[in-house]
Amino acid sequence: xxxxxxxxxxxxxxxxxxxxxxxxxxxxxxxxxxxxxxxxxxxxxxxxxxxxxxxxxxxxxxxxxxxxxxxxxxxxxxxxxxxxxxxxxxxxxxxxxxxxxxxxxxxxxxxxxxxxxxxxxxxxxxxxxxxxxxxxxxxxxxxxxxxxxxxxxxxxxxxxxxxxxxxxxxxxxxxxxxxxxxxxxxxxxxxxxxxxxxxxxxxxxxxxxxxxxxxxxxxxxxxxxxxxxxxxxxxxxxxxxxxxxxxxxxxxxxxxxxxxxxxxxxxxxxxxxxxxxxxxxxxxxxxxxxxxxxxxxxxxxxxxxxxxxxxxxxxxxxxxxxxxxxxxxxxxxxxxxxxxxxxxxxxxxxxxxxxxxxxxxxx
Length: 363
Ligand code: NAD
Ligand code: TYD
Description:
Layout: E1 4-8, H1 13-25, E2 30-35, E3 55-59, H2 77-84, E4 89-92, H3 99-104, H4 107-130, E5 138-144, H5 169-188, E6 192-197, E7 200-201, H6 210-220, E8 224-227, E9 233-235, E10 237-238, H7 239-252, E11 258-261, E12 266-268, H8 269-283, E13 296-299, H9 314-320, H10 328-341, H11 343-346, H12 352-362
Helix pairs in contact: 1-7, 2-4, 4-5, 6-8, 6-10, 8-10
Bound molecules: nicotinamide-adenine-dinucleotide and thymidine-5'-diphosphate.
Nicotinamide-adenine-dinucleotide binds near residues 40, 41, 63 and 144.
């Protein structure tokens, strides 16, 4: 079956990688991106596909008339798009996604992640019911391992049955959206699937996140700010592996199920930054400060900083046959090479808004 996808947040980091993946692997499918182009959305991420006939970009907000219009059956941008494009699959990436921003201003996280997800879900439910409830329709909700809270060094990794215990406004808002998606399956039998993945990295990641921030700061000779003692652990997943996992889940995942997606790459932040510095020293032709390890600076810890995340991805491996293929060393090398060769992509992102944000977090 060829599919007609609505990809929300497709101008962001993972969403745009997913769009490239999908159009390459399924050239007969239709891909419509809905994105509000917040600070994290960037049309340049989609430049190489914008002329393709089976691709369309629509600027719009998933919070389009929250809660009322869809329920009354009025036509909104989203209901219109679902109908006109005859969408059968939603891949829902759109979100406010950065923990530090959620600490500075949680309101936008509740609005987009909770209310926006609700609005989209309800519009899709009405669309699906109007089509006679086809069971091959899908609503794939892309979520995070952060909903499970924080692990101690000896705890077993998160499984799909680990109780939710979100600690930041970001993870709490994602947890809220996960619960709504679950409820729409349970109550209306809407064919939804939730994926909870670990930290992604790779091309097109906005420079507020750890890996691109360190790459870019090293290239500019600026301090590399490591929070707290640098011993927090994240389980790094190369974005290409994540897109492959989502592909498998869309085609073979079971409605109503949750799948954890991880990279099998648990690394302490300080070790990760040191690895990045080694790749920088090796690959960057002229670093302002060489070796770049000299730039590592321990800074004040993040409020409520989760100590460790780790994903047990046994379920997706045994039930759907997916495992990650990129090691952390391979993925970091690819990522450093990408940021080195795409200065024209990241330089414009270091805007006045970004500088103001940076001063607030790293003051
Ligand atoms: P991102 O911040 O790079 O991109 C988010 C995109 O959503 C942007 O293009 C933005 O313009 C768009 N958007 C934001 N608010 C919107 C709204 N109200 N309406 C429409 N579009 C809106 O995020 P990302 O890193 O690509 O993450 C994508 C998804 O994956 C998110 O749901 C996030 O919670 C989840 N996730 C990310 C990671 C990670 O490491 N990046 C890990 C686990 C889960
Ligand atoms: P981040 O990329 O923000 O992802 P998340 O908070 O969703 O895991 O941060 C990854 C880890 O790196 C996290 O433990 C916080 C830490 N970190 C720093 O030490 N310095 C930084 O400048 C940033 C952005 C993050």
